[in-house]
Protein backbone atom coordinates (compact mmCIF):
# COMPACT_ATOMS: atom_id res chain seq x y z
CA UNK A 1 0.00 0.00 0.00
CA UNK A 2 1.69 3.17 -1.17
CA UNK A 3 -0.51 5.22 1.10
CA UNK A 4 0.92 3.44 4.15
CA UNK A 5 4.53 4.29 3.28
CA UNK A 6 3.84 8.00 2.77
CA UNK A 7 1.57 8.64 5.75
CA UNK A 8 2.59 10.95 8.61
CA UNK A 9 0.87 10.22 11.90
CA UNK A 10 0.76 12.61 14.85
CA UNK A 11 2.66 11.63 18.03
CA UNK A 12 -0.61 10.64 19.71
CA UNK A 13 -1.65 8.50 16.70
CA UNK A 14 1.76 6.83 16.72
CA UNK A 15 1.31 5.97 20.39
CA UNK A 16 -2.17 4.60 19.73
CA UNK A 17 -0.78 2.48 16.87
CA UNK A 18 1.87 1.01 19.15
CA UNK A 19 -0.67 0.22 21.85
CA UNK A 20 -2.88 -1.54 19.31
CA UNK A 21 0.15 -3.56 18.18
CA UNK A 22 0.71 -4.56 21.84
CA UNK A 23 -2.83 -5.97 21.95
CA UNK A 24 -4.48 -3.35 24.19
CA UNK A 25 -8.23 -2.84 23.97
CA UNK A 26 -9.79 0.61 23.51
CA UNK A 27 -10.58 0.70 27.24
CA UNK A 28 -6.95 -0.15 28.11
CA UNK A 29 -5.66 2.44 25.62
CA UNK A 30 -7.92 5.05 27.24
CA UNK A 31 -6.48 4.24 30.68
CA UNK A 32 -2.90 4.41 29.38
CA UNK A 33 -3.45 7.78 27.66
CA UNK A 34 -5.60 9.23 30.48
CA UNK A 35 -8.53 9.87 28.10
CA UNK A 36 -12.09 8.60 27.85
CA UNK A 37 -12.87 5.34 26.07
CA UNK A 38 -14.71 7.11 23.24
CA UNK A 39 -11.71 9.38 22.70
CA UNK A 40 -9.46 6.32 22.44
CA UNK A 41 -11.87 4.77 19.90
CA UNK A 42 -11.79 7.99 17.89
CA UNK A 43 -7.96 7.96 17.80
CA UNK A 44 -7.95 4.35 16.57
CA UNK A 45 -10.44 5.20 13.80
CA UNK A 46 -8.32 8.20 12.79
CA UNK A 47 -5.31 5.91 12.35
CA UNK A 48 -7.39 3.43 10.34
CA UNK A 49 -8.61 6.22 8.05
CA UNK A 50 -5.14 7.68 7.48
CA UNK A 51 -3.59 4.31 6.68
CA UNK A 52 -6.49 2.95 4.68
CA UNK A 53 -6.75 -0.07 6.99
CA UNK A 54 -9.85 -1.81 8.28
CA UNK A 55 -8.78 -3.98 11.22
CA UNK A 56 -6.61 -3.93 14.33
CA UNK A 57 -4.67 -6.92 12.99
CA UNK A 58 -3.73 -4.98 9.84
CA UNK A 59 -2.67 -2.00 11.95
CA UNK A 60 -0.53 -4.18 14.25
CA UNK A 61 1.17 -5.72 11.20
CA UNK A 62 1.81 -2.27 9.72
CA UNK A 63 3.50 -1.06 12.93
CA UNK A 64 5.74 -4.13 13.09
CA UNK A 65 6.62 -3.75 9.38
CA UNK A 66 7.42 -0.05 9.77
CA UNK A 67 9.57 -0.56 12.86
CA UNK A 68 11.59 -3.40 11.37
CA UNK A 69 12.33 -1.58 8.10
CA UNK A 70 13.32 1.72 9.62
CA UNK A 71 17.00 1.81 8.66
CA UNK A 72 20.46 0.80 9.81
CA UNK A 73 20.31 1.95 13.44
CA UNK A 74 18.52 0.09 16.19
CA UNK A 75 15.98 2.88 16.69
CA UNK A 76 12.61 2.76 14.91
CA UNK A 77 12.07 5.57 12.42
CA UNK A 78 8.29 5.73 12.75
CA UNK A 79 7.65 9.46 13.07
CA UNK A 80 11.07 10.05 14.75
CA UNK A 81 9.36 10.79 18.08
CA UNK A 82 6.57 9.74 20.38
CA UNK A 83 6.26 13.01 22.28
CA UNK A 84 2.81 13.43 23.85
CA UNK A 85 0.56 15.85 21.98
CA UNK A 86 -0.05 19.15 23.78
CA UNK A 87 -3.47 20.80 23.71
CA UNK A 88 -2.57 24.17 25.26
CA UNK A 89 -0.12 26.92 24.35
CA UNK A 90 3.39 26.82 25.81
CA UNK A 91 3.80 30.12 27.65
CA UNK A 92 7.04 31.86 28.66
CA UNK A 93 10.36 30.20 29.56
CA UNK A 94 12.17 31.94 26.69
CA UNK A 95 15.48 32.24 28.55
CA UNK A 96 15.23 28.72 30.01
CA UNK A 97 14.55 27.22 26.58
CA UNK A 98 17.58 28.98 25.12
CA UNK A 99 19.92 27.84 27.92
CA UNK A 100 18.63 24.28 28.01
CA UNK A 101 18.51 23.95 24.22
CA UNK A 102 22.26 24.49 24.16
CA UNK A 103 22.88 22.40 27.26
CA UNK A 104 21.12 19.21 26.11
CA UNK A 105 23.23 19.02 22.95
CA UNK A 106 26.49 19.39 24.93
CA UNK A 107 25.76 17.40 28.10
CA UNK A 108 24.71 13.77 27.78
CA UNK A 109 22.54 13.82 30.91
CA UNK A 110 20.55 16.85 32.06
CA UNK A 111 18.09 16.43 34.93
CA UNK A 112 15.36 19.01 35.44
CA UNK A 113 14.43 19.21 39.12
CA UNK A 114 11.83 21.33 40.89
CA UNK A 115 8.95 21.20 43.31
CA UNK A 116 5.55 19.77 42.43
CA UNK A 117 3.69 21.74 39.79
CA UNK A 118 6.70 23.72 38.53
CA UNK A 119 6.22 22.56 34.93
CA UNK A 120 9.17 20.15 34.54
CA UNK A 121 7.34 17.75 32.21
CA UNK A 122 5.91 20.45 29.95
CA UNK A 123 9.30 22.14 29.68
CA UNK A 124 11.01 18.82 28.88
CA UNK A 125 8.46 17.96 26.15
CA UNK A 126 8.87 21.42 24.61
CA UNK A 127 12.65 21.02 24.64
CA UNK A 128 12.36 17.58 23.10
CA UNK A 129 10.22 18.90 20.27
CA UNK A 130 12.61 21.76 19.57
CA UNK A 131 15.63 19.43 19.63
CA UNK A 132 14.34 17.07 16.92
CA UNK A 133 16.66 18.47 14.25
CA UNK A 134 19.69 17.98 16.51
CA UNK A 135 19.11 14.21 16.87
CA UNK A 136 18.82 12.24 13.60
CA UNK A 137 17.11 9.30 15.31
CA UNK A 138 14.60 11.53 17.02
CA UNK A 139 13.30 12.34 20.48
CA UNK A 140 11.67 9.60 22.55
CA UNK A 141 9.49 10.10 25.61
CA UNK A 142 9.67 7.55 28.44
CA UNK A 143 6.87 8.17 30.94
CA UNK A 144 7.57 6.54 34.30
CA UNK A 145 4.37 7.74 36.05
CA UNK A 146 2.50 4.44 35.47
CA UNK A 147 5.41 2.34 36.77
CA UNK A 148 4.73 1.05 40.26
CA UNK A 149 7.74 -1.25 40.68
CA UNK A 150 11.42 -0.70 40.02
CA UNK A 151 11.50 -4.12 38.33
CA UNK A 152 9.31 -2.70 35.54
CA UNK A 153 11.49 0.28 34.62
CA UNK A 154 13.34 -1.52 31.80
CA UNK A 155 10.01 -2.74 30.40
CA UNK A 156 8.69 0.84 30.33
CA UNK A 157 11.80 2.02 28.48
CA UNK A 158 11.38 -0.80 25.97
CA UNK A 159 7.69 -0.02 25.48
CA UNK A 160 8.35 3.68 24.84
CA UNK A 161 11.25 2.94 22.45
CA UNK A 162 9.32 0.15 20.70
CA UNK A 163 11.98 -2.40 21.45
CA UNK A 164 10.69 -5.98 21.45
CA UNK A 165 11.93 -8.53 23.97
CA UNK A 166 14.22 -11.28 22.69
CA UNK A 167 14.15 -14.86 23.94
CA UNK A 168 16.77 -15.69 26.55
CA UNK A 169 18.18 -12.14 26.65
CA UNK A 170 17.93 -9.64 29.50
CA UNK A 171 15.65 -6.79 28.43
CA UNK A 172 18.15 -4.13 29.54
CA UNK A 173 20.77 -5.64 27.26
CA UNK A 174 18.28 -5.74 24.39
CA UNK A 175 17.57 -2.04 24.94
CA UNK A 176 21.25 -1.14 24.94
CA UNK A 177 21.90 -3.11 21.74
CA UNK A 178 18.93 -1.40 20.06
CA UNK A 179 20.28 2.04 21.02
CA UNK A 180 23.97 1.33 20.49
CA UNK A 181 24.27 3.04 17.09
CA UNK A 182 21.52 5.62 17.58
CA UNK A 183 21.83 9.38 17.82
CA UNK A 184 18.74 10.20 19.81
CA UNK A 185 17.42 12.19 22.77
CA UNK A 186 15.50 10.30 25.45
CA UNK A 187 13.13 12.37 27.59
CA UNK A 188 12.71 10.32 30.77
CA UNK A 189 9.86 11.78 32.81
CA UNK A 190 9.04 11.46 36.54
CA UNK A 191 11.99 9.44 37.83
CA UNK A 192 11.62 10.14 41.54
CA UNK A 193 9.48 7.20 42.67
CA UNK A 194 11.68 4.58 40.95
CA UNK A 195 14.87 6.57 41.13
CA UNK A 196 17.36 3.77 41.89
CA UNK A 197 16.28 1.58 38.98
CA UNK A 198 15.96 4.58 36.70
CA UNK A 199 19.45 5.80 37.58
CA UNK A 200 20.87 2.33 36.86
CA UNK A 201 19.10 2.16 33.50
CA UNK A 202 20.19 5.65 32.48
CA UNK A 203 23.81 5.01 33.55
CA UNK A 204 23.91 1.79 31.52
CA UNK A 205 22.58 3.54 28.41
CA UNK A 206 25.05 6.41 28.72
CA UNK A 207 28.00 4.02 29.14
CA UNK A 208 27.19 1.89 26.11
CA UNK A 209 25.33 4.19 23.70
CA UNK A 210 27.59 7.14 22.98
CA UNK A 211 25.16 8.81 20.57
CA UNK A 212 22.28 8.96 23.06
CA UNK A 213 21.61 12.00 25.25
CA UNK A 214 19.09 11.96 28.09
CA UNK A 215 16.87 14.72 29.45
CA UNK A 216 15.31 13.57 32.73
CA UNK A 217 12.73 15.14 35.02
CA UNK A 218 12.73 14.31 38.69
CA UNK A 219 12.00 15.93 42.03
CA UNK A 220 15.52 14.93 43.08
CA UNK A 221 18.75 14.34 41.12
CA UNK A 222 19.67 10.89 39.79
CA UNK A 223 23.18 11.31 41.24
CA UNK A 224 25.13 9.51 38.56
CA UNK A 225 28.40 10.45 36.90
CA UNK A 226 28.17 13.26 34.35
CA UNK A 227 24.73 14.47 35.46
CA UNK A 228 24.00 18.19 35.07
CA UNK A 229 21.24 19.22 37.48
CA UNK A 230 19.13 22.17 36.33
CA UNK A 231 16.56 23.50 38.79
CA UNK A 232 13.43 24.73 37.03
CA UNK A 233 12.45 28.10 38.51
CA UNK A 234 8.91 29.26 39.09
CA UNK A 235 7.47 31.60 36.47
CA UNK A 236 8.44 35.23 36.94
CA UNK A 237 5.86 37.14 39.00
CA UNK A 238 5.64 40.70 40.26
CA UNK A 239 5.86 41.00 44.02
CA UNK A 240 2.49 40.98 45.82
CA UNK A 241 0.92 44.43 46.03
CA UNK A 242 3.66 45.83 43.79
CA UNK A 243 2.43 48.69 41.61
CA UNK A 244 3.05 47.91 37.92
CA UNK A 245 1.37 49.18 34.77
CA UNK A 246 -0.61 47.12 32.26
CA UNK A 247 2.22 46.99 29.74
CA UNK A 248 4.66 45.54 32.30
CA UNK A 249 2.05 43.10 33.56
CA UNK A 250 1.31 41.83 30.04
CA UNK A 251 4.98 40.80 29.71
CA UNK A 252 5.02 38.87 32.99
CA UNK A 253 5.17 35.08 32.41
CA UNK A 254 2.88 34.10 35.29
CA UNK A 255 0.24 36.64 34.30
CA UNK A 256 0.42 35.58 30.65
CA UNK A 257 -0.15 31.96 31.68
CA UNK A 258 -3.08 32.88 33.93
CA UNK A 259 -4.76 34.90 31.16
CA UNK A 260 -4.13 32.26 28.49
CA UNK A 261 -5.74 29.50 30.55
CA UNK A 262 -8.51 31.69 32.01
CA UNK A 263 -9.61 32.85 28.56
CA UNK A 264 -10.26 29.24 27.55
CA UNK A 265 -13.15 29.19 30.07
CA UNK A 266 -13.96 32.93 30.14
CA UNK A 267 -13.28 34.35 26.68
CA UNK A 268 -14.30 37.87 27.74
CA UNK A 269 -11.63 38.09 30.46
CA UNK A 270 -8.89 40.60 29.67
CA UNK A 271 -6.22 42.36 31.67
CA UNK A 272 -7.58 45.71 32.87
CA UNK A 273 -6.63 48.31 35.45
CA UNK A 274 -9.54 47.03 37.56
CA UNK A 275 -8.45 43.38 37.75
CA UNK A 276 -4.67 43.93 37.48
CA UNK A 277 -4.07 43.96 41.24
CA UNK A 278 -6.05 40.78 41.83
CA UNK A 279 -4.31 38.88 39.00
CA UNK A 280 -0.88 39.99 40.24
CA UNK A 281 -1.68 38.85 43.77
CA UNK A 282 -3.12 35.51 42.62
CA UNK A 283 0.06 34.71 40.67
CA UNK A 284 2.34 35.90 43.48
CA UNK A 285 0.40 34.04 46.15
CA UNK A 286 0.77 30.83 44.11
CA UNK A 287 4.56 31.32 43.91
CA UNK A 288 4.50 31.40 40.11
CA UNK A 289 3.86 27.61 40.03
CA UNK A 290 2.38 26.78 36.60
CA UNK A 291 0.13 23.97 37.85
CA UNK A 292 -1.32 26.13 40.62
CA UNK A 293 -1.86 29.06 38.24
CA UNK A 294 -3.59 26.83 35.67
CA UNK A 295 -5.89 25.37 38.31
CA UNK A 296 -6.74 28.85 39.60
CA UNK A 297 -7.37 30.10 36.05
CA UNK A 298 -9.77 27.21 35.47
CA UNK A 299 -12.03 28.80 38.11
CA UNK A 300 -12.41 31.97 36.04
CA UNK A 301 -15.46 30.48 34.35
CA UNK A 302 -17.45 30.73 37.59
CA UNK A 303 -15.58 33.24 39.77
CA UNK A 304 -14.26 36.78 39.32
CA UNK A 305 -10.49 37.11 39.78
CA UNK A 306 -10.95 38.93 43.10
CA UNK A 307 -13.13 36.03 44.29
CA UNK A 308 -10.43 33.54 43.29
CA UNK A 309 -7.90 35.60 45.26
CA UNK A 310 -10.08 35.76 48.38
CA UNK A 311 -10.44 31.97 48.38
CA UNK A 312 -6.74 31.16 48.06
CA UNK A 313 -6.38 30.91 51.82
CA UNK A 314 -7.97 27.50 51.28
CA UNK A 315 -5.98 26.89 48.11
CA UNK A 316 -6.04 23.10 48.39
CA UNK A 317 -9.83 23.17 48.50
CA UNK A 318 -10.15 25.67 45.64
CA UNK A 319 -7.63 24.20 43.20
CA UNK A 320 -9.23 20.82 42.64
CA UNK A 321 -10.44 20.77 39.04
CA UNK A 322 -7.55 19.80 36.81
CA UNK A 323 -7.79 18.25 33.35
CA UNK A 324 -9.20 14.72 33.32
CA UNK A 325 -6.65 13.86 30.61
CA UNK A 326 -3.74 14.68 32.93
CA UNK A 327 -2.09 12.04 35.12
CA UNK A 328 -3.90 11.84 38.49
CA UNK A 329 -0.97 13.40 40.36
CA UNK A 330 -1.29 16.55 38.21
CA UNK A 331 -5.05 17.01 38.45
CA UNK A 332 -5.04 18.93 41.74
CA UNK A 333 -2.46 20.89 43.64
CA UNK A 334 -3.04 18.63 46.64
CA UNK A 335 -2.30 15.50 44.61
CA UNK A 336 0.87 16.99 43.12
CA UNK A 337 2.36 17.74 46.54
CA UNK A 338 1.03 14.50 48.05
CA UNK A 339 3.12 12.65 45.44
CA UNK A 340 6.34 14.31 46.70
CA UNK A 341 5.41 14.08 50.37
CA UNK A 342 4.66 10.36 50.12
CA UNK A 343 8.17 9.70 48.79
CA UNK A 344 9.79 11.21 51.90
CA UNK A 345 11.09 9.21 54.84
CA UNK A 346 9.39 9.55 58.25
CA UNK A 347 12.18 11.85 59.49
CA UNK A 348 11.94 14.05 56.41
CA UNK A 349 8.18 14.40 56.94
CA UNK A 350 8.74 15.45 60.56
CA UNK A 351 11.21 18.17 59.53
CA UNK A 352 9.02 19.26 56.62
CA UNK A 353 5.87 19.86 58.63
CA UNK A 354 7.72 21.49 61.54
CA UNK A 355 9.38 23.95 59.15
CA UNK A 356 5.93 25.45 58.56
CA UNK A 357 6.18 27.42 61.83
CA UNK A 358 8.97 29.56 60.33
CA UNK A 359 8.53 32.62 58.13
CA UNK A 360 10.82 33.82 55.36
CA UNK A 361 14.32 32.32 55.39
CA UNK A 362 15.70 30.45 58.39
CA UNK A 363 19.10 29.35 59.67
CA UNK A 364 20.06 25.74 60.32
CA UNK A 365 20.70 26.68 63.96
CA UNK A 366 17.10 27.87 64.39
CA UNK A 367 15.66 24.81 62.62
CA UNK A 368 17.66 22.42 64.80
CA UNK A 369 16.70 24.22 68.02
CA UNK A 370 12.98 24.38 67.21
CA UNK A 371 12.39 21.05 65.44
CA UNK A 372 14.20 18.41 67.49
CA UNK A 373 12.49 16.22 70.08
CA UNK A 374 12.48 12.57 71.13
CA UNK A 375 11.00 11.60 67.75
CA UNK A 376 13.63 13.54 65.79
CA UNK A 377 17.23 13.47 66.95
CA UNK A 378 19.18 16.70 66.65
CA UNK A 379 21.90 14.92 64.68
CA UNK A 380 19.40 13.81 62.01
CA UNK A 381 17.97 17.23 61.17
CA UNK A 382 20.73 18.55 58.89
CA UNK A 383 20.74 15.39 56.76
CA UNK A 384 16.93 15.34 56.52
CA UNK A 385 16.94 19.01 55.56
CA UNK A 386 19.47 18.31 52.82
CA UNK A 387 17.23 15.54 51.47
CA UNK A 388 14.24 17.90 51.44
CA UNK A 389 16.30 20.37 49.41
CA UNK A 390 17.26 17.59 46.97
CA UNK A 391 13.58 16.61 46.69
CA UNK A 392 12.62 20.22 45.88
CA UNK A 393 10.41 20.62 48.95
CA UNK A 394 12.73 23.17 50.60
CA UNK A 395 14.87 25.87 48.98
CA UNK A 396 18.46 26.51 50.13
CA UNK A 397 19.56 30.11 49.58
CA UNK A 398 23.24 31.00 49.49
CA UNK A 399 24.72 34.48 49.71
CA UNK A 400 28.42 35.21 49.68
CA UNK A 401 29.83 35.53 53.18
CA UNK A 402 26.74 34.21 55.00
CA UNK A 403 25.64 30.71 56.06
CA UNK A 404 23.06 28.86 53.95
CA UNK A 405 19.46 29.72 54.85
CA UNK A 406 16.34 27.70 54.11
CA UNK A 407 12.81 28.59 53.07
CA UNK A 408 9.63 27.04 51.68
CA UNK A 409 7.39 28.30 48.91
CA UNK A 410 4.17 29.70 50.34
CA UNK A 411 2.14 26.92 48.73
CA UNK A 412 4.33 24.24 50.33
CA UNK A 413 4.22 26.09 53.65
CA UNK A 414 0.40 25.89 53.58
CA UNK A 415 0.60 22.17 52.87
CA UNK A 416 3.16 21.58 55.64
CA UNK A 417 1.06 23.54 58.13
CA UNK A 418 -1.94 21.36 57.25
CA UNK A 419 0.22 18.35 58.11
CA UNK A 420 1.26 19.95 61.41
CA UNK A 421 -2.39 20.58 62.27
CA UNK A 422 -3.27 17.00 61.34
CA UNK A 423 -0.65 15.72 63.81
CA UNK A 424 -1.77 18.13 66.60
CA UNK A 425 1.67 19.75 66.84
CA UNK A 426 0.92 23.39 66.06
CA UNK A 427 0.94 24.78 69.61
CA UNK A 428 4.07 22.86 70.59
CA UNK A 429 6.25 24.05 67.72
CA UNK A 430 4.87 27.57 67.54
CA UNK A 431 5.79 27.96 71.21
CA UNK A 432 9.28 26.60 70.57
CA UNK A 433 9.65 28.98 67.62
CA UNK A 434 8.55 31.93 69.78
CA UNK A 435 10.97 31.03 72.59
CA UNK A 436 13.92 30.73 70.20
CA UNK A 437 13.33 34.08 68.51
CA UNK A 438 12.49 35.92 71.71
CA UNK A 439 15.83 34.72 73.06
CA UNK A 440 17.47 35.89 69.82
CA UNK A 441 15.77 39.30 70.19
CA UNK A 442 17.05 39.72 73.75
CA UNK A 443 20.61 38.93 72.65
CA UNK A 444 20.29 41.31 69.70
CA UNK A 445 19.00 44.06 72.02
CA UNK A 446 22.34 44.03 73.84
CA UNK A 447 24.56 43.45 70.80
CA UNK A 448 23.07 46.34 68.84
CA UNK A 449 24.55 48.71 71.43
CA UNK A 450 28.10 47.37 71.17
CA UNK A 451 30.98 47.11 68.70
CA UNK A 452 29.23 44.31 66.73
CA UNK A 453 26.34 46.58 65.79
CA UNK A 454 26.78 46.29 62.01
CA UNK A 455 26.92 42.48 61.94
CA UNK A 456 23.96 42.15 64.29
CA UNK A 457 21.96 44.72 62.34
CA UNK A 458 22.33 42.48 59.26
CA UNK A 459 21.46 39.40 61.33
CA UNK A 460 18.28 41.00 62.66
CA UNK A 461 17.35 41.98 59.10
CA UNK A 462 17.60 38.36 57.99
CA UNK A 463 15.38 37.22 60.88
CA UNK A 464 12.82 40.01 60.64
CA UNK A 465 9.96 37.82 59.34
CA UNK A 466 10.49 35.26 62.11
CA UNK A 467 10.79 37.98 64.76
CA UNK A 468 7.50 39.52 63.68
CA UNK A 469 5.84 36.09 63.74
CA UNK A 470 7.15 35.43 67.27
CA UNK A 471 6.12 38.87 68.52
CA UNK A 472 2.61 38.43 67.10
CA UNK A 473 2.17 35.54 69.53
CA UNK A 474 3.14 37.50 72.65
CA UNK A 475 0.49 38.31 75.29
CA UNK A 476 -0.49 42.02 75.41
CA UNK A 477 2.06 44.17 77.20
CA UNK A 478 4.94 41.68 76.94
CA UNK A 479 8.22 42.53 75.22
CA UNK A 480 11.27 40.41 74.45
CA UNK A 481 13.11 41.92 77.39
CA UNK A 482 10.42 40.77 79.82
CA UNK A 483 9.93 37.25 78.44
CA UNK A 484 11.97 34.39 79.80
What does this entry look like structurally?
The protein is of the alpha/beta class. The protein folds into four domains: 2-68, Winged helix-like DNA-binding domain superfamily/Winged helix DNA-binding domain (Arc Repressor Mutant, subunit A); 94-231, 3-Layer(aba) Sandwich (Rossmann fold); 246-333; 344-482, Orthogonal Bundle (Arc Repressor Mutant, subunit A), CATH 1.10.10.10. It is 51% helix and 7% strand. It has helices at 2-6, 11-21, 26-33, 37-51, 56-68, 94-106, 120-130, 153-161, 171-179, 195-208, 246-251, 253-262, 276-285, 290-297, 305-310, 315-318, 333-342, 346-354, 364-371, 378-390, 410-422, 426-447, 453-462, 464-472; strands at residues 109-113, 139-143, 184-189, 212-218, 227-231, 362-363, 395-397, 405-407. 40% of the residues are buried.
Amino acid sequence: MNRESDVRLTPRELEVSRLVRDGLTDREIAARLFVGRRTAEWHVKQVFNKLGLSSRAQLAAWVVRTETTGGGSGMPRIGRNNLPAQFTTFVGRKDELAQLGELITKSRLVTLTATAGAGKTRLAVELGARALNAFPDGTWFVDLVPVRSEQLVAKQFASALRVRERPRQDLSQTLIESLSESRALLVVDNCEHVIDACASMVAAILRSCTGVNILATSREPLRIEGEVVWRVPSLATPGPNLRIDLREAAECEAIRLFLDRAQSVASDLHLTSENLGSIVNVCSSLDGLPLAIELAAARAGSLRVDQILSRLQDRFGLLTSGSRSAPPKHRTLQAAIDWSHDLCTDRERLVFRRLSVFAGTTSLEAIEDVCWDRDLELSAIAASLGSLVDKSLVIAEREAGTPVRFRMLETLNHYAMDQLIKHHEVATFRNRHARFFLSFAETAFDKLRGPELQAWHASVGRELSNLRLALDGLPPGRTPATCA
